[in-house]
Amino acid sequence: MIIMKDVYKTYPNGVTALNGISVDINQGEFVYIVGPSGAGKSTFVKLMYREVEPTRGQLMINNMDLSDLKEKNVPHFRREIGVIFQDFKLLSKLSVYENIAFALEVIEESPKNIRKRVMDVLDLVGLKNKARFLPDELSGGEQQRVSIARAIVNHPKIVIADEPTGNLDPETSWEIMKVFEEINARGTTILMATHSKEIVNSIKKRVIAIEDGLIVRDQHRGEYGYES
Ligand SMILES: Nc1ncnc2c1ncn2[C@@H]1O[C@H](COP(=O)(O)OP(=O)(O)OP(=O)(O)O)[C@@H](O)[C@H]1O
């Protein structure tokens, strides 16, 4: 559950990226965040994993109040959130297996549990046979599958994806969307910032449109609403 009340974000250089955002997102929803370049989409999703902090306003995520979250509670908060980026952000010297296991090792899982959970999640994204490969030895779509696997291996309640298909060709993008739908079908909330008119208009979900730091549209099974 995500609750935002009158959230503002002004960066240190004086640019106000969010201008009073209020929104409720329930557990299990699939939400696209759309809008023109520079509208505030990335800032909006970055608030959700505490990459940026609001200048003003209230933000509750998974029953935790981010306005007064203590530093010592940040790791606990982040464990409930999986994040996926346009450029994958995999560790190039680690294998596929190690990239995913890393997320578990830091929370002190036993080696046996780690192996089972990594292999289960690789199975889900269809990459069990590439566990020993290095990221460079994979296609873009495969690398994005690894980053999805890494994001969900801790079973987070919320998955945040900032332009996850931005570097992928259309066919690969559809395959990645199937993986997101599968994760959502298991009850995980998905928040996806995207510029893909084709995806938003074909795989219908809730659409939140942001322009000049404000929510200008919030529609169930909405359209993309801009020229691509
Ligand atoms: N770290 C930062 N410091 C200063 N200004 C920033 C920072 N990050 C973003 N901005 C500014 O905030 C505004 C919103 O940016 P944001 O990245 O949230 O937009 P966006 O909708 O995600 O854009 P795009 O679709 O191009 O990725 C822009 O004017 C941008 O220049």
From TrEMBL:
Name of protein: Cell division ATP-binding protein FtsE
Membrane topology: Peripheral membrane protein
Compartment annotation: Cell membrane
Domain of life: Bacteria
Keyword set includes Repeat: no
Family from the record: Belongs to the ABC transporter superfamily.
Coiled-coil ranges from the UniProt annotation: none
Matching Pfam families: ABC_tran
PROSITE patterns hit by this protein: ABC_TRANSPORTER_1 (PS00211), ABC_TRANSPORTER_2 (PS50893)
